[in-house]
Input
Amino acid sequence: MSDTVRYERRGKIAVITVDNPPVNALSSSVREGLADSQAKAKADPEVEAIVLIGAGRTYIAGADIREFGKPMTGPGLQQIINDFENSEKPVVVAIHGTALGGGLEVALGCHYRVALPSAQLGLPEVKLGILPGAGGTQRMPRVIGVKAALDMITSGDPLPTAKAKEVGLVDEIVQGDLLDGAIKFAETVAIPGGVQGRRVSQRTDKLGGADAAFFAEARKTTAAKARGQIAPVKIVDALEAAATLPFADGIKKEREVAQELMSGTQSKALRHVFFAEREAAKIPDVPADTPTRPVKSVAIIGAGTMGGGIAMSFANIGIPVTLIDSTDEFLDRGLKRIKDNYAVTVTRGRLSQADMDKRVGLIKGGIGTDKIKDADMVIEAVFEEMDLKKTVYRDIDKFAKAGAVLATNTSGLNINEIASVTKRPQDVIGLHFFSPANVMRLVEVVRAEKTGKDIIATCMQVGKQLRKVPVLARVYEGFIGNAMLRHYGREAHFLLEEGALPQQVDKALTDFGYAMGMFGVHDLAGNDVGYRMRKAAQASRPNDRRYSDIITILCDMGRLGQKTGKGWYRYEPGSRTPIPDPEVEALIVAESKKKGVERRPITDEEIVKRCVYGPINEGAVLLEKGIALRPSDIDIVYVTGYGFPSWRGGPMFYADTVGLKNVLDDIKRFHERDGFYWKPAPLLEQLVREGKSFADYQAGR
Ligand code: 3HC
Ligand code: NAI
Output
């Protein structure tokens, strides 16, 4: 018998328990165990029904992703599912935790599904660049209807039990002990004809209403949302097969598409992102058993854009926050913004009024740094000015209780310098949240020279608790993400002076898969972000390199972006749709002339290379300097914080797919042409010399 599946008898009910921690993935050993258990239950004349359940924190959370791309061993999942469905003894699946992917496909093959109220049921394969390949695209529409199945499978988002019951995916919600409830339920269906009408593959009653026009429209809207990702569109094909072909032919179609997607680069990239996100949590010199400090209350200094968003993030997980500013006026403005933000979510139906009240109730305002004294964690989010941060930190040192975690949300100031004004630099760390902080998942956890390991472990844990993705970085100008962004931004602006227009640059980048192009982002964030610094720096610029001033000129013209109705584009009142503006074109052309640059046609290929290879080269520098721990951490920063297409795996993974030699050849060409920027990173040159990739580099460390 398999050591990951247990079989026992409870009276006339056979209980099959999958016990493969941590998430009961369907590894070859689980599949073997399921096949053996099926045979046992079938052969035992005393058994009248079967319950399938998961041990530990969850029911089966899907296929074992680590086995993907490797030769298959053990029985196939399809066969196991078919055997459950064909069983003459009713099979009841008992669901808790997450029934995902292959796990839910097993459940669809069984005759009944019961679940705890807290369970989630979903087919998230699209997030791995594949589709449910064990009958999910054929059985799900037969249970919940084509339209609902399309939404569920193309989004990959799970349904909570209550909703799953409403659409017919769950037959009964179990209150109390799940196994007891499932056995009781199984006893009621352990009757002659108990499987009658319960074999999903034989159902067609929910397949109506999805005609050719429905699928044509679905293909169009799905492709638009997918922005270059293949799997969602292929899922529409598989669902069309479900609606129009006999079950066996639909399964054939599903298998064909599954194989094609599984061997493609997009799926490899998305699987890389899945594991990279989890790898980022592992820090070699801060082992998982490093003691952490309890964080049950938080104080945030600075009730501005970031302070407010960070406060919401903590309130959202039930941690009370004291939000502090220097005057009543600024504090009230900050607290009002928080309420307004929550109110919008309530209006959109994504939060109940009662939950909003609870969350708002967890955020108390205060004036003066002395209000931090009871907090387990203090997060400073005042203006980005070193002298001010030092003043605030001297006060933090004075008032914070012993053992409190002292974090700064600086976007790039030297945290060693900030820590140096305290008597406890070991407690000081960077927690770089991204805007809007209540939405964005990335948090760079910035380790300063003297930061204690327990503080790092605590912040990584708090980041995960906040349902964010914490990635460790070291002190460096712009840490990981903004250091790379500098190269992206610089090239986007130079491209304009050389012959491109904002709409062309943005289109090339969105075609590549970015959620938005550089200039659309500028207009959204406000072109005045960093204006004062740029203006001040103009006087003392070294003359050995090139600069672009167009953004500063736009600000001087009052073209601050969407908020003024004009920026790199113009906007109709109340609309966020960017409209190319001849006034901006004239300005750009004049700038080229002023700089003596002859404008030339620029290809989309050049735009993508210059905007993406610059960050890759910088990424190699960050690895060499130890600012980032591993290439996959850099990928996660760029995918979760900067809109880089996840289906390209992040910039370092993407570089591997292009081939590091090809990337380096272009970088050398750009360097020759530019003369100052684009100096090839020694690590990149070394890897090319050795014929290695970033993945080899990561594996070899
Ligand atoms: N296969 C292999 N390993 C998996 C896995 C899977 N399906 N799901 C999770 N793991 C591993 C993680 O890599 C992690 O390993 P580590 O501790 O060594 O880093 C460990 O399990 C715990 O995972 P999380 O840290 O993510 O735990 P959480 O409690 O935060 O989340 C979860 C649990 C919601 C189940 C989340 O892990 C998840 O979403 N997993 C992926 C689910 C999924 O995509 N299923 C579909 C798979 S594809 C499929 O089924 C194909 C089918 O159609 C044939
Ligand atoms: P903001 O200008 O919106 O808010 C700063 C707040 O700090 C203001 O409300 C101000 O009154 C308050 N403040 C100033 N001095 C204070 C003091 N001595 N005591 C108490 N409160 C004081 O600034 P924002 O954008 O929230 O930025 C805060 C920090 O977060 C900066 O370090 C910034 O670099 C960083 N950051 C900003 C991001 C952004 O996109 N806005 C993204 C990531 C980090």
